[in-house]
């Protein structure tokens, strides 16, 4: 031990050390007994979609949402989305937002595009907690909004179906 640490230990009584250890244990016990208080608050599906759309109602069409009807594993559900757009400076897809109505956090992903992308298309794998609807909302450069929805039945993984 260095001189500074040994000098510090000489100045701390056994009683002070035990009190500090007890207080630390109380903090750890409180954190494990109250996990709900420590969790982040996620928006509801309505709040999440409304944060993108505001007061506007998205139209149907222009989005092709491809998901399996039945997913055998909710941890890796393949998703493909493409939006019909010329992707020109005057008319392009700005963003595509993906939501899942059965997940604790409905915000699954957001993809941003520019005319330089050439096409508004992507493929990924998402995690679904249970059988639920997956919703895609596309924001266009002129402010128009489009929406598509598909149900996925999760048979295992996630939290079951």
Q: Could you describe the 3D structure shown?
A:
With 161 residues, the protein is of the alpha+beta class. It folds into two domains: 36 residues; 110 residues, SoxY domain (Immunoglobulin-like, Sandwich), CATH 2.60.40.2470. Helix content is 26%, strand content 34%. The chain is built from four helices and nine strands. The strands form two sheets. Strands 1, 3, 5, 6, 8 and 9 form a six-stranded mixed β-sheet that branches. The radius of gyration is 25 Å and the shape is elongated. The model has no long low-confidence stretch (mean pLDDT 85).
List the keywords:
161 residues; alpha+beta; Immunoglobulin-like; 2 domains; 3-stranded antiparallel β-sheet
């Amino acid at each position: 031990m260095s001189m500074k640490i040994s000098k510090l230990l000489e100045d701390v009584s056994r009683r002070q050390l035990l009190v500090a250890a007890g207080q630390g244990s109380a903090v750890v016990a409180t954190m494990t007994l109250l996990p709900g208080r420590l969790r982040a608050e996620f928006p509801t599906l309505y709040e999440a979609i409304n944060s993108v759309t505001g007061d506007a109602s998205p139209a149907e069409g222009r989005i092709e949402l491809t998901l399996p009807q039945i997913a055998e594993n909710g941890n890796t559900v393949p998703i493909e989305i493409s939006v019909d757009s010329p992707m020109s400076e005057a008319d392009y897809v700005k963003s595509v937002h993906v939501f899942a109505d059965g997940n604790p956090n409905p915000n699954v992903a957001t993809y941003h595009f520019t005319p330089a992308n050439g096409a508004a298309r992507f493929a990924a794998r998402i995690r679904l907690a249970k059988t639920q609807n997956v919703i895609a909302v596309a924001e266009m450069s002129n402010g128009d909004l489009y929406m598509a929805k598909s149900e996925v039945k999760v048979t295992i993984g996630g939290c079951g179906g």
